[in-house]
Amino acid sequence: MRWLHTNFDLSIAVTAAIAVSSMVMTFVWGLVLDVPALIVISGIGAISGAVLAFILSFLPDDMRSFETERILRIATALAEDTRNGLTVESAQRVCSLLLPETRAIAISLTDRETVLAYVGDRDEEFPEGTPIRTQATFDVLQSGQLTTFDSITPFDILAGTPLEESTKVAGIVAPLIVHDVPIGTIKLYYARPRDINRTQLSIARGFSELLSSQLAVYALDRQAELTAQAEVKALQAQINPHFLFNTINTIAAFTRTDPERARNLLRDFAVFYRRTLEYSSEQLIPLERELEQTRRYLLFEHARFGDDRILMVEHVEEGCDEVPVPSFLIQPIVENSVRHAMGEEDPLHIDVYVLTEDNDVLISISDDGVGMPQSVADTLIETSGASQEGTGIALRNIAGRIKQFYGPGSNVEIVSREGVGTCVTMRLAGAAPQAQGNQSVQRSA
User: Fold this and answer.
1) CATH class of the domain at 2-238
2) What is the 3-state secondary structure of the chain?
3) CATH code given to domain 279-444
4) Interatomic CA distance for residues 401 and 304, integer angstroms
5) Where are the domains of the chain?
6) Nearest to 237 by CA among 163, 326, 138, 169
7) Res 51 pLDDT > 70
8) Fewest CB within 10 A of the end CB: N or C in the chain?
9) Against a cut of 0.85, is the pTM above it?
10) More confident residue, 392 or 257
11) CA-to-CA distance for 327 and 275, rounded, in angstroms?
12) Residue 190 has pLDDT above 90, yes or no
């Protein structure tokens, strides 16, 4: 059992440390489409999938399943606890959750001035609101770098306890950083300095980066309420909390029934969210990379619904693969089709056409799903149009960025019929490549 716990310490430490150094978060919490949204960017964060899969590949299947589920459970619980930022209440829950996963005797969270929560030995001495007193904490808030300390407790210093009667304590202080600014710390306390080893340092660093990522996403959520910047809206359109949790549950189920597929899905999940966080709404990327991200998204929906329930075919005119397009251009529309157009039993067919017309590039995404009245479709890209679960936000954002990048003549057109399907066509004015011929490349996803 000691070997099991040590391996779990290492796996969760490395996974958490690398997971959300960007996001996830990325991918942290509560990016709002038009309903309250729970995002994990992290907890499940991007690169963690690949690292976790690598670590678990060395363990027996039963242990691999156990540790995968446990790590996902902890990450999901962290994300839930921080969905509304780091408050006194959420800090208390986070400390209670994380303490058993370490060898520490106590754990605390602070903001820049006070202790938000303290759980463990002598917790009665550090109630919420206690001012920060240790120099190590101030140093971390100033430098943004993890550090360790070995001293008598702040309580003994404050009380004037004689040195020989004081309680020696060692600890690790790691920063919580949002937008490159330390906003607080996570502190792990140990009974003896020798209890602080590389594993405990990795755990502390991993938890600090995981929490930082979650808080960064919460900051994005707050920013989304105060700003109409295209980048925030693009992330709102891209990151769907329902998709996130459904994917987590799918992978967790496969850890028992098909561990090999679970490992592959974790790797793809890591790449998907890393790309999501790396791309900016103001960034142009080759069309092929946007299509790759769309195919990657469908891997998770295929795992959830079955390979035969969603069938996507790409028809790309020769020379158009490298056309520069805004990120988050095709994948959100395909995601809308999966979320809103798929019937209860019949497979959903999605066709992506990319072709040139004079100097323009036309990108069309059509499905044979449930469709909608044309009167509803006409409102989706209007400024005042209402939307369900963020569909209108995504399409209005896409339309706005197309006009921003390609200028007059660029537009988005939506045609839909109930019971027939929906087609979204984007015209990128002046984006046609200087290509020979009009042959097309067809791919299925």
Assistant:
1) alpha beta
2) CHHHHHHHHHHHHHHHHHHCCCCCCCCCCCCCCCCCCCCCCCCCCCCHHHHHHHHHCCCCHHHHHHHHHHHHHHHHHHHHHCCCCCCHHHHHHHHHHHHHHCCCCEEEEECCCEEEEEEECCHHHCCCCCECCCHHHHHHHHHCCCEEEEEECHHHHHHCCCHHHCCEEEEEEEEEEECCEEEEEEEEEECCHHHCCHHHHHHHHHHHHHHHHHHHHHHHHHHHHHCCCHHHHHHHHHCCHHHHHHHHHHHHHHHHHCHHHHHHHHHHHHHHHHHHHHCCCCCEEEHHHHHHHHHHHHHHHHHHHCCCCEEEEEEEECCCCCCEEECCCCHHHHHHHHHHHCCCCCCEEEEEEEEEECCEEEEEEEECCCCCCHHHHCCCCCCCCCCCCCHHHHHHHHHHHHHHHHCCCCEEEEEEECCCEEEEEEEECCCCCCCCCCCEEEEEC
3) 3.30.565.10
4) 31
5) 2-238, 279-444
6) 326
7) no
8) N
9) no
10) 257
11) 10
12) yes
Show the CA angle centred on residue 32, arms to residues 79 and 411, nearest 5°: 135
Task: Enumerate residues 6+ apart whose C-beta is below 8 A from 109.
Answer: 86, 91, 94, 95, 115, 116, 117, 176, 184, 185, 186, 187
pLDDT digits (tens, 9 = 90+) for 119-150: 999 888 888 888 998 889 999 999 999 999 88
- Is the pLDDT at 385 greater than 50, yes or no? no
User: What is the C-alpha to C-alpha distance for residues 261 and 251, in angstroms, rounded to an integer?
Assistant: 8
* 335: nearest Cα among 229, 440, 234, 225: 234
CA–CA separation, 167 and 175 (whole Å): 25
Contact between residue 343 and residue 368 where contact means Cβ atoms under 8 Å apart? no
Average pLDDT over residues 142-165: 64
- Spatial distance between the Cα atoms of 259 and 68, rounded to a whole number of angstroms: 10
Q: For the segment 192-229, what is each residue's pLDDT rounded down to a tens digit?
A: 888 899 889 988 988 888 888 888 877 776 655 544 44
Enumerate the β-bridge partners of residue 430: none
pLDDT at 65: 63
Residues 167, 93: Cα–Cα separation, whole Å: 26
Q: Angle at Cα 142 formed by Cα 208 and Cα 185, nearest 5°?
A: 25
Torsion of CA 210, 175, 82, 133, to 10 degrees: 150
Identify residue 282 by its one-letter amino acid code. Answer: E
CA distance 178 to 6: 30
**Placement of tokens 């790409």 in the chain:** 314
Give the mean pLDDT of 77-85. 80
